[in-house]
Specification:
The chain has about 450 residues and is of the alpha+beta class. The chain has 2 domains: about 325 residues, no CATH class; about 110 residues, no CATH class. Helix content is about 30%, strand content about 10%. The chain is built from 17 helices and 14 strands. Helix 3 crosses helix 9. It is globular. The chain starts with a strand and ends with a helix. The relative contact order is 0.14. It binds heme C (2 copies). The site of one heme C (HEC) has 24 residues, from helix 11, helix 12 and helix 15. The site of one heme C has 20 residues, from helix 6 and helix 8. GO terms for molecular function: cytochrome-c peroxidase activity; electron transfer activity; heme binding; metal ion binding. Keywords: Heme, Iron, Metal-binding, Signal. This is Cytochrome c domain-containing protein. It holds the Pfam family RoxA-like_Cyt-c.
């Protein structure tokens, strides 16, 4: 186990507070946060990928009676969101779900529809949408393929699994493929570099942790101050010059992301149990996950694979060649990625009640199952929506049906995507067995405490 640059820890011990110039540079700038919020929620940065009409035509591909988009925009939007696991936008978005946006309207370009960060980083819980909550229901593959087919085009078969289950996305491989098409100076290549990375699909981390982290991504190999690294998807079309022009905007967006806070647990908490649970947490969990409240300290620990024991595919999947290539580019000039593979970063647990399923691959549906490894299901059905009727207030997370038999190959893909199968690449549910030593009562107290974070 190792500690990384402990900037937050130093603030707490007051050392850096002695330096006024330092505290000035770290204090959040409300104007930048507001510019970032605007920039993220009102502007598309990619050219349109689909025609405006594709959104309304996708319903014809569902093999069921979809409400006609032209008869009731609202009913169609609800059915569209249900079908693809998307959520209504908590900001003005022209009737489109969060994650899709109209692009190219100004500047005379061809107008149409594009995805943005919130297709993965916009989620909902109990019917309320949040920017920055990971989208735990998205079927990204179906969304991209259906919109393309609705435009009478076909996507080439993907070289990797975008997602085999709802709510997990292979964002890493999208970046790898884009980066492999660029030279170190980011000029386009005719043939991709063979970088040898093989990453799995992942659960999406909430943005509200970013403000506490010194390093980010699940393996903690990137400095959390890196603005450029969160711009990698723009390699889909942008030149180095265009990326440089966008960087100040993404600096503001980064400030906005760091300002986000999790929603509070909406049901009652048994304070007596929670207080007992805090003691269990202090004994068993604080050394990796830190403390909470106004004086909370986050240790930013990256835990070796041999200790954490969770699915190794993500930690192993980033090849040395890929990291070395990334580090020769503009993206890494300020903050190169760490060459060393360690394991997984113990994340902050703020708002943990709202971010089920758990672990970096979303392989465990509830906190109860995370903290008692024998209860983790090998194959389970993910909920049809994030409505509270599917929420388990005792186990904390999503109610689930255990699926005993392997899904029949004749199951339509739309149905099959609801099944999370831990035997697939990268989706193992082992490891993190730190709760196994607790008694059932201690575990229940601990879960009560976790609701308060
Ligand atoms: C296809 C889904 C997808 C899209 C689109 C996407 N992300 Fe992510 N994002 C992820 C996943 C998955 C991770 C976890 C990656 C990992 O650690 O390997 C992640 C990680 C992050 C993190 C690190 C969070 C942390 O605490 O470690 C940031 C910051 C981030 N994304 C910002 C963005 C921004 C900004 C955009 C838009 C330009 C964006 N993402 C678009 C899926 C996506
Ligand atoms: C040795 C360090 C260590 C200890 C001790 C530890 N954890 Fe963790 N925890 C981690 C790491 C690392 C991860 C991320 C693993 C992954 O995603 O593969 C994690 C993940 C989690 C998650 C899932 C987070 C998410 O967003 O999906 C929860 C919840 C959690 N831990 C709670 C606890 C509790 C409660 C305890 C005490 C019983 C505890 N942990 C003890 C290191 C630790």
């Amino acid at each position: 186990m190792r500690r990384r640059s402990r900037i937050r820890g130093l603030i707490a011990t007051g050392i850096l507070l002695l330096s006024p110039s330092w505290s000035f540079s770290d204090s959040p700038d409300p104007a930048a946060i507001e510019r970032g919020r605007q920039a993220l929620t009102s502007t598309g940065y990619l050219k349109p990928a689909w025609s405006e009409a594709a959104y309304g035509r996708a319903g014809a591909l569902w093999g069921q009676n979809a409400p006609a988009a032209e008869l009731s925009a609202e009913a169609y939007a609800a059915a569209f969101n249900q079908r693809y696991g998307m959520h209504s936008a908590p900001f003005p978005n022209g009737g489109l779900p969060m994650g899709l946006r109209r692009a190219g309207e100004s500047g005379g370009g061809k107008s149409g529809v594009q995805i943005d960060c919130m297709v993965c980083h916009g989620g909902s819980i109990g019917g309320t949408s949040y920017v920055g909550l990971g989208n735990s229901t998205l079927d990204l593959r179906a969304l991209l393929y259906d919109l393309t087919q609705a435009d009478n085009r076909r996507l080439p078969p993907s070289l990797f699994h975008l997602n085999t289950a709802r709510g997990t996305m292979n964002a890493g491989m999208i970046s790898v493929v884009l980066l492999s098409m660029r030279n170190s100076d980011l000029s386009m290549r005719k043939f991709p570099l063979a970088l040898g990375a093989n990453l799995p699909e992942l659960d999406v981390p909430p943005w509200w942790h970013l403000g506490r982290k010194a390093t980010m991504y699940y393996d903690g190999r990137t400095d959390a101050r890196s603005v450029r690294s969160i711009m990698q998807f723009f390699l889909a079309e942008k030149s180095l010059e265009e990326l440089k022009e966008l960087e100040p905007t993404f600096r503001d967006i980064h400030a906005y992301m760091k300002s986000l806070k999790p929603p509070k647990y909406p049901f009652t908490v048994d304070e007596v149990k929670a207080e007992r649970g805090k003691t269990v947490f202090s004994k068993n969990c604080v050394k990796c996950h830190g403390t909470y409240g106004p004086d909370g300290q986050y240790p930013n620990r990256i835990v070796e694979l041999a200790v954490i024991g969770t699915d190794p595919a993500r930690a192993h999947g980033l090849s040395d060649r890929l990291v070395a290539h990334y580090n020769t580019t503009w993206f890494a000039e300020e903050y190169p990625a760490d060459l060393e593979k360690i394991g997984y970063q113990a994340p902050p647990l703020d708002g943990i009640w709202a971010t089920a399923p758990y672990l970096h691959n979303g392989s465990v549906p509830t906190l109860a199952a995370l903290l008692k490894s024998a209860d983790r299901p090998a194959r389970f059905k993910r909920p049809p929506s994030t409505g509270f009727e599917h929420y388990d207030q005792v186990g904390v997370g999503w109610k689930f049906d255990v699926i005993t038999d392997p899904p029949s190959p004749s199951l339509p893909p739309h149905e099959a995507q609801f099944i999370y199968d831990t035997s697939r690449f990268g989706l193992g549910n082992g490891g993190h067995r730190f709760g196994d030593v607790l008694s059932d009562d201690e575990r229940a107290d601990l879960i009560e405490f976790l609701k308060t974070l």
